Amino acid sequence: MKLLSSILLLNTIEAGWKQKWEERFGNAVEDKRATERNAACDAKALSETAKFEIQGGSWDCPALGQDVANILCEPKCDDPTDRGNWPRRSFIKVQCRTNPTVKIRNVSNNMQCNPDLCLESTAAVDIPKGQISFSKRNKSKTLFSVTCDGKTGTQAAVICFNSSGALTSKTHDWQNVCDPVLTQTTTEPPTTEFAPLTDSIKSGLETCVSASNFPTGGRKKRERLSKIVGGVNAEEGSWPWITRLFLTESIGGGSGFLCSGSIIHNHWVLSAAHCCDGIAEVVATFGDISRSTFESGQFSLTSTTFFNHPEWGQGADGDFGNSDWCLIKFNEDILAAAPEPEKVKIACLPSEPIEHGSGCWVAGWGTTSSGGSTSTTLLSAGVNILGKDYCENFSNNGILMPDDVCAGLPDNDNNGLTDPGKDACQGDSGGPLICPVDGKAVLAAVVSRGVGCASEGFPGLYSATFNAKDWMRDIILNN
């Protein structure tokens, strides 16, 4: 017992001396290191920001002089009403180590603050019996509201383009909207740039054959599509080019992913690259409308041969998600295998990009809300093609890639953002965006990506088939 007590006493004495040493010397050493590290971090932040002078502005580094892991410096204008010419996420970030490291994003040597053109434009506007006021802003446009004396609510929404200061509104003669005497003198009728929409696909559209999509010479051929009936729930035969895809990561696997595709050739289906990525096998069901019941004319084929577009997922153009095309080859002739040929047809490929404002349709078995359950029945919805300028100015999707097609509902409520309510969703990926062109059912694009589903300001993004025609032709002719 004496030996055990002696050992415990020695251990206690040793621990006590260790604690006293750490309290007297250890904390001082750590404090000294922290002070040196912080000083080096501050000096690095100041030296890096000094390299990029901001005309009419300065660098805001609120963490300078503090014991922090990182110092984030962001550009700001001296006059809060001015606007900087830099992207929204521009910064210099210093990670505080013994040898500090630096991350720089969207910073250049020509950063400057300029007067807000939109504020200048609206300041020059006179609203008889009313006023115009700021509502909200994004990187490309600013929304203003016109309110009238003695009236509640917004009487007109005015959009200003930040780069030019130009003002526009869907309300006719919006400057005089508060003065009935002035507005009564105008008779100009309202105009629209968007085709009217229906959720059921147009009847009587023509389909195509392999030779017309990928001609090798001679006259192109077309086939007539039988009459389409139905609304949101598609009827049998109304989407004869669509195929439901079940994709698995192993051959014969029991669990997998739901996507869609479109027949573009007797042996080929076009879908999305993000559907085919990492996939070993796909089972394609043709002539199908309902997933829960077997229909006459329905049949399935299996493939293990896929070709993703080489630029998908690369990010060399600044976006990893565009060029979202996958070609799936079937050994069998898809049309010849159909027990009811009128229910299985080839969609036409475009000869030119689809025009802004066109009324088109998207269909699939995906979820009916973001994160919701998939549909057992093929659903279709009408959407407008939103051109590059319109999409970038009236949505939060950012800058479009050359192969991107933006489609959804335009800004009908004049709040500066595309309307919610119509879109593709999870499980619809790879499916067709069909537009009527010269009486033909043209596969304008495939469902690619988006933020949520049918959300305000986030119309769907699709990958244009027109941009992939040369690649598709090379793959099909060489395989």
Automatic annotation (TrEMBL):
Keywords, sorted A to Z: Disulfide bond, Hydrolase, Protease, Secreted, Serine protease, Signal
Signal peptide: 1-15
Predominant location: secreted
Subcellular location as annotated: Secreted
SUPFAM superfamilies: Trypsin-like serine proteases (SSF50494)
Domain of life: Eukaryota
The Peptidase S1 domain, residue ranges: 228-477
Keyword Plastid among record annotations: no
Annotated protein name in UniProt: Oidioi.mRNA.OKI2018_I69.chr2.g4651.t1.cds
UniProt-listed Pfam families: Trypsin
InterPro entries membership: Peptidase_S1_PA (IPR009003), Peptidase_S1_PA_chymotrypsin (IPR043504), Peptidase_S1A (IPR001314), Serine_Proteases_S1 (IPR050127), Trypsin_dom (IPR001254), TRYPSIN_HIS (IPR018114), TRYPSIN_SER (IPR033116)
Organism: Oikopleura dioica
